[in-house]
Amino acid sequence: MTVYSAPGSDGAIVNYESRYDHFIGGEYVPPAKGQYFANPSPVTGQDFCEVARGTAEDVEKALDAAHGAADAWGRTSTAERANILNKIADRMEQNLEKLAVAECWENGKPVRETLAADIPLAIDHFRYFAGAIRAQEGTAGEIDDDTVAYHFHEPLGVVAQIIPWNFPILMAVWKLAPALAAGNAVVLKPAEQTPASIHYWMSLVADLIPPGVVNIVNGFGVEAGKPLASSNRVAKVAFTGETTTGRLIMQYASENLIPVTLELGGKSPNIFFEDVSRLDDDFYDKSLEGFSMFALNQGEVCTCPSRALIQQSIYSDFLAAGVKRVENLKQGNPLDTDTQVGAQASNDQLEKILSYLDIGRQEGAKVLTGGARADLGGNLSGGYYVQPTIFQGNNSMRIFQEEIFGPVVSVTSFDDYADAIKIANDTLYGLGAGVWTRDINTAYRAGRAIKAGRVWTNSYHLYPAHAAFGGYKQSGIGRENHKMMLDHYQQTKNLLVSYSPKAMGFF
Amino acid sequence: MPATRVDVTPAAADMMRQLRGQHGPLMFHQSGGCCDGSSPMCYLEGEFRTGQSDVLLESLKIDGVDEPITFWMSASQFELWKHTHLTVDVVPGRGSGFSLEAPEGVRFLIRSRLLTEQELVELS
C-alpha cells in the first residue's frame, strides 16, 4: 500500500504550477482578457491552481499558430511523425507515476486506476498510432490499361478537439494521437473541470513537438469552446460529451460544411445469462467483478455498465453475490493505492447523481446498497464522494434510461434470450454492452444482436488500442481507439492519371 | 394553478434574470448522454436550432424577464421523461458544454418528481 502525498504538499512526487496560461505556438501565453478561474481538486474540494479563462481572441491566436504550423507538419514524413509520437510515449513512460498522481489529484479517480489503466493506455495509444501511420498505404486502382486511380492520404489541416473531464489525459490522447499521426495541427480545449493535468503532460513533452502543432486553450465552453467549435478556420471538430452539445457542434459544423466526430455516451446493458452461475469457479468470480464494474472510475465512464440485466432463474442468488461484492469495494482517499472508488469529478456532478438517487426512489426503485453521499471524514469531507449504489427496478424508469455518470447500477431481470435483447436495446443509446455466458453461441448471437458499438464479451472496461470504440444510435459518430480513426483525420486525394498519349475522342 | 411540466427555483430564476440582463433572451435544451448529460443547457434564444425532433415542454415566465424562456427536450428523450415533473435549480459548479451560466461558477440542475395522475390528465 502506498499513499501518495497530495501535489503541492511535503513529499509530493509531482506538483502543479500555481497558474496555467494558454499553450499557443510552443509557449505559454496569458489570456487576452487577463482572467483566470480556480481549479479545485475533487479529493478535498480545495482549489490547487488557477487556469486561463480563454475567449475568442485566445482561440484566434491558437488558430493562427496552428495554421502557421500545419503545412510544414503535414509534409513531414510518417517516419518523422511516428518517431515523435514514440518519443512522447517514452517520456510519458519515464514519468508514469507522476502523471498518474497528477491526474488522480485533478479528477478524483483512484491512483490505482491511473497507474494501471489511464496512463499506460495513453502511452500505448501514441505507440499504436506511431505504428499505424507507418504502415498506412494509399492504393492504386487500375481503371483500365491506360488509366490509374491513385489514392493518397492527406491531413485535414487544423482540427479542433474538445476533451471531457472523466479521463483528462487519456481522452486527450485518444484524440491527439490519430490527429498528429495523420499530420494535422490541433487546437485542443480541455474540460473546465480538469484543465490542468494536460498542461502537466505538456510540460513533459513540449520540447518534442514543433511549435504550433499542439495548442491548448483553456476556458469555459460558452467562452472558449464555442468560438473554437464554430470557427470557419477548423477542418474538423472532435467532441466527447453529451447530446445537446453534440447537436450544437453539428449545427456549427453544418454552417462551415466540415465533418465532426462525436462520442456522446450511453446507457450500457451488462447481461448475465443463467449459465454464469453453473459453477462456482474463476469465471463466476470474474462475472461478479464484471457486475461491479459500474463503480469503475466512480461510474464516470461513457460505457459505464449502468444497467445490469440478470436472467430470472439466477436473479436472487447472483444479485445477492453482486451486492456483497460491491459492499466490499474500498472507497477512500484516491491517492491511496488500495482505494478502488474515489471522488466524483465536480460538485455539480455530485449534485446530479444525488438528484438521480432521489428520482430513482420516487419511481419505486429499491436501493439494495448505497444510495447516498459518502462523508469520508477529515480533509476528505469537502470532497465529492458517492456510495456505490445498486438499484432494483425496471427498464422504463429514468435511472435505467439516463446515464447518471455516477457509481450507480440499475438492475432488472429477464426471462430468456429474446427478452434480454429486447431490454438491452430499449434505450436511446448504443455505445457499450457486456455479455456474460459460458455458451459461445449465446455470446456470439447476443453480441451481434445488441445495437451498440462495443460489446464486451465475458469482459468489461478494457480499452486497448486497436479495438474500435464508438456509438450506435444517439451515442455518436465515428470510431476512436483504432486505425480507422485516421480516416476521420484525413482527406483522400485521388490522382486520376492517363498513361495514353491518344486523344480521348470526345472533341 | 394549472399543471406545469417545468418549474424553476427562486435561485434559478435569479440566475436567469442575471443571464437575461447580460446576454439577451434565453432558451433551455435538456441534454442526455454522458459527461454533462442530463443537465439543462441554457443558450441565447435561437442559438440552438430546435426542429421536429424536439418538444417544447414549457414557456417559462420569469418575473423581471419580458419574454418567456422556452424549455425544450428531444422528442425521444421526452418519451422517457414525460411522467416526471422537472424543476430547474442551480448549484455551485461549472458544468461543461456551452451553457451560459458556467462562467458564473454555477450550473443549472434538474430536480425531478413524479407527476400526479391529475397533472398527467391535465397535461395530456
TrEMBL record, chain A:
- Xref: Pfam families: Aldedh (PF00171)
Keywords of the record, alphabetical order, are: Oxidoreductase
Family to which the UniProt record says this protein belongs:
Belongs to the aldehyde dehydrogenase family.
Q: Which residues form the active site?
A: 263
Organism (species): Paractinoplanes aksuensis
Stored Gene3D superfamilies = Aldehyde Dehydrogenase, Chain A, domain 1 (3.40.605.10), Aldehyde Dehydrogenase, Chain A, domain 2 (3.40.309.10)
**Which top-rank group of organisms is this from?**
Bacteria
Which positions fall inside the Aldehyde dehydrogenase domain? Answer: 32-494
Protein name per UniProt: Aldehyde dehydrogenase family protein
UniProtKB/TrEMBL annotation, chain B:
In terms of Pfam families, this protein maps to: DUF779
The record's InterPro entries line, in alphabetical order, gives:
DUF779
Q: Which domain of life is it from?
A: Bacteria
Q: What is this protein called?
A: DUF779 domain-containing protein
